[in-house]
Amino acid sequence: MEECIFTDSSKLDQLRNEIKEIDKQLVELISKRLRVAKQIGQIKSVQGLPIRNFQVEKKVFERVSQLSEKLSVPQELSNDVFEKIVANSVAIQENLPMKIQKETEQKKILILGGKGRMGQWLTHYFSSSGHCVKSVDPSYPETEDNYQSLPSDLNQFDVIAISTPLHRIADDIAEVMERNPSGLIFDIASLKSEILKVLTDHPEFRNLQYVSVHPMFGPSAVNLHGKNLVVCKVFSETPVEKFIRFFEDTAVNIQIIDISEHDKLMGYSLNLVHLINIILADLLTSNEYSFSYLKKFSSTTFEKQIQTTYEVAHENPELYWAIQHFNSYRDKLFEELQKSISKVHDASRTQTPFDFMTILANSRAYFKS
To answer: What is the pLDDT of residues 145-193, one digit of tens each?
Structure first.
């Protein structure tokens, strides 16, 4: 009978040495790739090209996806590794001195709330693509790149982005649009109910190039591979098309909907998931065990769920309140949640598992839809 290799210590040592050599080769290859990325950055610097080429990044992830499938490497692992590699490559290129791109190739972009977290993300995105970006943020001093209040001439800007807090963004949109700017205007509000009220009160805004968008990712996103970007049509298709041109070469998934649909969809993909995790966090704070003690008895499911709950609990509470408060579908969502809790509670009290099995069977069918 052939001896099992796991009982052969010499074979185990051989395999461990093989792993050690592979690890060395991996680190050497990463180092080589970063050196090549730096060389590319130096060429961009000489030619005055933008740091980011999102079309190239998109092709990188397409290539990695094909190779992963061919070599039976988990897609999630490959994506995680290459997201970090691409992020570091971009960081290396950003630290190189860059020539200013020709003005004729640039768009002048103004970002209200440009010093906030998502405002900084937008600033970085557009400036690394070669555009000239200025911000409006009264919390920061007046500089060449930051206004403390709206400049008098908004027509000098090709694009005006509004990235202010949710509780005031509708008023900021109104203030901008009352100036009747000629460029593209867009907001990144995570809810649109208050904005719809402003648009209803001001039918004259219909003549402006306005689109309402919602990045379904946070300011820590380095690249857009696998991320979702919701683009809401407001008055016409033209502003939608103009906005999409800024992102069409990236790997982001663009979803186009009418603005009237947005908050109902967000009720499930945003409000509900926040709500469930906030409820779980609140419930845990009321139990008799400390978190450090309870973790000693955690299951795999608990570990997965609590990671998300932990992140939600450490987010900006004012923002999360605003997301719950300003969604016009909030009360309907709470009613649906209470009905589901009652249904699952009732099913758990029956003497047979039939009702419980039906709930899970319906759930499995839904996830296939």
So the answer is: 999 999 999 999 999 999 999 999 999 999 999 999 999 999 999 999 9
The answer for residues whose C-beta is within 8 angstroms of residue 192's C-beta and 6 or more apart is 212, 214, 232, 259, 262, 263
Yes or no: say if 78 and 242 are a contact pair by the CB < 8 Å rule.
Answer: no
The 10s digit of each residue's pLDDT in 29-49 is 998 999 898 888 888 877 777
Q: State the average pLDDT over residues 267-275.
A: 94
Same domain, 256 and 268: no
Task: From 207, 330, 210, 326, select the one nearest 259 (Cα to Cα).
Answer: 210
pLDDT averaged over the chain?
Answer: 90
Domain span at residue 40 reads: 15-94
Which token pair is 68? 């992963």
Q: Is-contact 159 184, C-beta < 8 A?
A: yes
CATH classification of the domain holding 45 = 1.20.59.10
The verdict on residue 7 lying in a domain is no
Q: Does residue 219 have a pLDDT over 50?
A: yes
Of 41, 76, 94, the last residue of a domain is 94
Q: Are residues 27 and 119 in the same domain?
A: no
pLDDT of amino acid 102: 47
| Max Cα distance, the chain (Å) | 87
Joined together, the tokens standing for residue 33 give 């790739």
Instruction: Verify that 41 and 86 share a domain, yes or no.
Output: yes
Tell me 275's DSSP state: H
Structure tokens, 86: 């691409």
* Terminal alpha carbon distance of the chain: 50
pTM: 0.75
Q: Is residue 353, in this structure, part of any structural domain at all?
A: yes
Q: What percent of the chain has pLDDT over 90?
A: 69
The answer on 256 and 107 residing in a single domain is yes
Q: Report pLDDT for 45.
A: 72
Q: Amino acid letter at 26?
A: L
Residues 200 and 324 in one domain: no
Contact between residue 234 and residue 162 where contact means Cβ atoms under 8 Å apart: no
